[in-house]
Write a structure and sequence with these properties.
The protein has 3 helices and 9 strands. By secondary structure, the chain is α+β, with helices and mostly antiparallel strands. The protein folds into 2 domains: 1-28, no CATH class; 35-157, Protein of unknown function DUF192 (Jelly Rolls, Sandwich). It is globular and about 35 Å long.
Length: 161
Protein backbone atom coordinates (compact mmCIF):
# COMPACT_ATOMS: atom_id res chain seq x y z
CA UNK A 1 0.00 0.00 0.00
CA UNK A 2 1.33 3.42 -0.89
CA UNK A 3 1.46 6.07 1.79
CA UNK A 4 0.20 9.59 1.28
CA UNK A 5 3.79 10.76 0.98
CA UNK A 6 4.78 8.37 -1.81
CA UNK A 7 1.48 8.68 -3.68
CA UNK A 8 0.94 12.44 -3.62
CA UNK A 9 3.77 14.43 -2.05
CA UNK A 10 6.80 12.69 -3.61
CA UNK A 11 5.98 13.59 -7.26
CA UNK A 12 5.51 17.26 -6.32
CA UNK A 13 8.71 17.28 -4.28
CA UNK A 14 10.63 15.74 -7.20
CA UNK A 15 9.25 18.39 -9.58
CA UNK A 16 10.28 21.18 -7.18
CA UNK A 17 13.81 19.78 -6.90
CA UNK A 18 14.12 19.48 -10.69
CA UNK A 19 12.82 23.03 -11.13
CA UNK A 20 15.32 24.32 -8.58
CA UNK A 21 18.09 22.62 -10.58
CA UNK A 22 16.89 24.26 -13.79
CA UNK A 23 15.40 21.05 -15.23
CA UNK A 24 11.81 20.32 -16.12
CA UNK A 25 9.93 17.26 -14.94
CA UNK A 26 8.13 15.06 -17.49
CA UNK A 27 4.47 15.96 -17.91
CA UNK A 28 2.16 13.95 -15.66
CA UNK A 29 -1.40 12.97 -16.50
CA UNK A 30 -4.30 12.83 -14.06
CA UNK A 31 -3.24 9.33 -12.96
CA UNK A 32 0.13 10.72 -11.84
CA UNK A 33 2.15 8.85 -14.47
CA UNK A 34 4.77 10.76 -16.46
CA UNK A 35 4.18 10.70 -20.20
CA UNK A 36 5.99 12.12 -23.20
CA UNK A 37 4.68 13.09 -26.64
CA UNK A 38 5.31 10.71 -29.55
CA UNK A 39 4.08 11.06 -33.14
CA UNK A 40 3.79 8.44 -35.87
CA UNK A 41 3.92 9.61 -39.51
CA UNK A 42 2.50 7.12 -41.99
CA UNK A 43 3.64 6.65 -45.59
CA UNK A 44 0.26 8.09 -46.62
CA UNK A 45 1.13 11.36 -44.84
CA UNK A 46 -1.16 10.99 -41.81
CA UNK A 47 0.20 11.85 -38.36
CA UNK A 48 -1.00 10.42 -35.06
CA UNK A 49 -0.05 11.85 -31.67
CA UNK A 50 0.32 9.70 -28.57
CA UNK A 51 1.35 10.29 -24.95
CA UNK A 52 3.63 7.47 -23.89
CA UNK A 53 5.12 6.21 -20.66
CA UNK A 54 8.80 5.37 -20.89
CA UNK A 55 10.25 1.99 -19.88
CA UNK A 56 14.01 2.62 -20.00
CA UNK A 57 15.46 0.50 -17.20
CA UNK A 58 15.49 -3.31 -17.09
CA UNK A 59 13.01 -3.16 -14.20
CA UNK A 60 10.63 -0.85 -16.08
CA UNK A 61 10.86 -2.99 -19.22
CA UNK A 62 10.21 -6.12 -17.17
CA UNK A 63 7.05 -4.60 -15.60
CA UNK A 64 5.74 -2.99 -18.80
CA UNK A 65 1.95 -2.77 -18.93
CA UNK A 66 1.37 -5.83 -16.74
CA UNK A 67 -1.87 -5.89 -14.74
CA UNK A 68 -3.29 -2.75 -16.43
CA UNK A 69 -7.01 -3.05 -17.13
CA UNK A 70 -7.42 0.01 -19.35
CA UNK A 71 -5.38 2.43 -21.44
CA UNK A 72 -6.48 5.63 -23.18
CA UNK A 73 -6.75 5.48 -26.98
CA UNK A 74 -3.87 7.97 -27.36
CA UNK A 75 -1.64 6.34 -24.73
CA UNK A 76 1.11 3.76 -24.95
CA UNK A 77 4.43 2.65 -23.55
CA UNK A 78 7.80 3.08 -25.26
CA UNK A 79 10.36 0.43 -24.29
CA UNK A 80 13.86 1.87 -24.77
CA UNK A 81 16.97 -0.31 -25.15
CA UNK A 82 20.63 0.78 -24.87
CA UNK A 83 21.59 -0.46 -28.37
CA UNK A 84 19.88 -1.91 -31.45
CA UNK A 85 19.23 -5.63 -31.00
CA UNK A 86 16.81 -8.38 -31.81
CA UNK A 87 14.09 -7.94 -29.19
CA UNK A 88 11.58 -10.46 -27.94
CA UNK A 89 8.51 -9.54 -25.89
CA UNK A 90 5.69 -11.54 -24.30
CA UNK A 91 2.30 -10.94 -22.75
CA UNK A 92 2.54 -12.83 -19.43
CA UNK A 93 0.47 -10.98 -16.80
CA UNK A 94 -0.68 -8.45 -19.40
CA UNK A 95 -4.45 -8.18 -19.48
CA UNK A 96 -4.88 -5.79 -22.42
CA UNK A 97 -4.48 -6.94 -26.03
CA UNK A 98 -1.69 -4.81 -27.51
CA UNK A 99 -0.08 -3.88 -30.80
CA UNK A 100 3.73 -4.02 -30.52
CA UNK A 101 5.62 -1.78 -32.93
CA UNK A 102 9.31 -2.70 -33.15
CA UNK A 103 11.32 0.43 -34.05
CA UNK A 104 14.82 0.70 -35.56
CA UNK A 105 17.42 3.22 -34.40
CA UNK A 106 16.40 5.64 -37.19
CA UNK A 107 12.79 5.72 -35.92
CA UNK A 108 11.38 3.52 -38.70
CA UNK A 109 8.96 0.76 -37.77
CA UNK A 110 10.58 -2.61 -38.48
CA UNK A 111 7.55 -4.85 -37.88
CA UNK A 112 4.27 -4.88 -35.98
CA UNK A 113 2.76 -7.67 -33.88
CA UNK A 114 -0.94 -6.84 -33.95
CA UNK A 115 -3.52 -7.74 -31.33
CA UNK A 116 -1.18 -9.80 -29.18
CA UNK A 117 -2.87 -12.39 -26.98
CA UNK A 118 -3.29 -11.34 -23.33
CA UNK A 119 -1.56 -13.54 -20.73
CA UNK A 120 0.38 -15.48 -23.41
CA UNK A 121 3.94 -16.63 -22.76
CA UNK A 122 4.63 -17.00 -26.49
CA UNK A 123 7.60 -14.83 -27.50
CA UNK A 124 7.01 -12.03 -29.99
CA UNK A 125 10.19 -11.09 -31.92
CA UNK A 126 11.43 -8.12 -33.87
CA UNK A 127 12.11 -8.91 -37.54
CA UNK A 128 15.40 -6.97 -37.44
CA UNK A 129 17.50 -5.18 -34.82
CA UNK A 130 15.37 -2.63 -33.00
CA UNK A 131 16.15 0.13 -30.51
CA UNK A 132 12.65 0.37 -29.09
CA UNK A 133 9.19 -1.14 -28.91
CA UNK A 134 6.00 0.90 -28.76
CA UNK A 135 2.99 -0.79 -27.21
CA UNK A 136 -0.43 0.59 -28.16
CA UNK A 137 -3.95 -0.68 -27.62
CA UNK A 138 -4.64 -3.77 -29.72
CA UNK A 139 -6.05 -2.87 -33.14
CA UNK A 140 -4.59 0.66 -33.19
CA UNK A 141 -2.13 -0.03 -36.02
CA UNK A 142 -4.81 -1.43 -38.34
CA UNK A 143 -7.35 1.23 -37.39
CA UNK A 144 -4.90 4.06 -38.10
CA UNK A 145 -3.14 2.49 -41.08
CA UNK A 146 0.25 2.29 -39.33
CA UNK A 147 2.64 -0.07 -41.10
CA UNK A 148 6.31 -1.12 -41.23
CA UNK A 149 8.40 1.69 -42.70
CA UNK A 150 6.36 4.44 -41.03
CA UNK A 151 8.32 6.98 -38.95
CA UNK A 152 8.13 7.32 -35.18
CA UNK A 153 8.99 10.84 -34.07
CA UNK A 154 10.43 10.92 -30.55
CA UNK A 155 13.59 12.34 -28.95
CA UNK A 156 14.87 8.83 -28.16
CA UNK A 157 15.28 8.13 -31.90
CA UNK A 158 16.51 11.64 -32.70
CA UNK A 159 13.44 12.20 -34.88
CA UNK A 160 11.41 14.62 -32.73
CA UNK A 161 10.40 17.83 -34.45
Amino acid sequence: MQTWLTRFAAPWLAALILAACGQSAPAQDADGLAREPLVIETAAGATYAFRVEIAATPEERSQGLMFRTAMAADAGMLFQYPAPQYITMWMANTILPLDMLFIAADGRIVNIAERTVPQSRETIPSAAPALGVLELNGGSAARLGIAPGDLVRHAFFGTAE
